[in-house]
Amino acid sequence: MSIAVTVAQGEAASERAWRLIRADILRGALAPGQKLKLEGLRDGYGVAIGTLRESLSRLIAERLVVAEGQRGFEVSRFSARELRELARLRLLLEGHALEHAFRAGDMEWEGRVAAAHHKLAQMEKRLREGEDGAIDDWRRFDSEFHRTLISACGSRTLMATHATVFDRYLRYQNLALGFRGAIAVEEHAALRDCAIRRDAAAARAVLAAHILGGVDHALASGAV
């Protein structure tokens, strides 16, 4: 086997391990504060210790994992301070991107926004009817709707930065924020309507109420 093939396979293994561990952290399968033992991760994800160290280094840079010196690694813990910080960052980035997307978006973008909202609304309806099994699909479609809203902003850097912040915020949403019922339904519908009208000022106001309301809900529930 050539050196080039060996390197490529090593890179693929590191990328795969990073994605799998990251996904498990975001959805809570690896809980905040959980110790990450290299031997256990090696057995669970089927990759070498060296590969795991590379993957964990990326997760440390993303602030999803904390290095504990000689004691190993730990999933980053929750804190009210970090949640508020992520909410402010998300509002800043998403609000800025909304303005650009509303100016530049075409009819195809409008169609994608409407379609993303339709899927989200169907999950919201099922949740309000007591179908708890719809929660995972609701989380996925909620993320898709918000990303679609800003998809016409025209900046890959802005989208990538927003995605990084959104994913960290998503961990809180998956484990602490939850579905807020009628108010969230109304806010999502209002964001869709603002997009169709291209009313960026109104959308930013709705977005602020939506994001900060979620933070208040999480803090009041004691989940953080």
Task: Give a nutshell description of this structure.
This protein is mainly alpha-helical and 224 residues long. The chain folds into two domains: 73 residues, Arc Repressor Mutant, subunit A (Orthogonal Bundle), CATH 1.10.10; 142 residues, Four Helix Bundle (Hemerythrin (Met), subunit A) (Up-down Bundle).
Topology diagram in text:
Elements: H1 3-27, E1 35-36, H2 38-45, H3 49-61, E2 65-67, E3 73-75, H4 80-104, H5 107-128, H6 135-149, H7 156-177, H8 182-197, H9 200-221
Antiparallel strand pairs: 1-3, 2-3
Structural account:
- The protein is mainly alpha-helical.
- It folds into 2 domains: 3-75, Orthogonal Bundle (Arc Repressor Mutant, subunit A), CATH 1.10.10; 80-221, GntR ligand-binding domain-like (Four Helix Bundle (Hemerythrin (Met), subunit A), Up-down Bundle).
- The chain is 75% helix and 4% strand.
- It contains 9 helices and 3 strands, in the order αβααββαααααα.
- The chain has helices spanning 3-27, 38-45, 49-61, 80-104, 107-128, 135-149, 156-177, 182-197, 200-221; strands at 35-36, 65-67, 73-75.
- It has a 3-stranded antiparallel beta sheet.
- A hairpin with a 5-residue loop joins strand 2 and strand 3 (73-75).
- 30% of the residues are buried.
- The model is unreliable at 1-10 (pLDDT under 50).
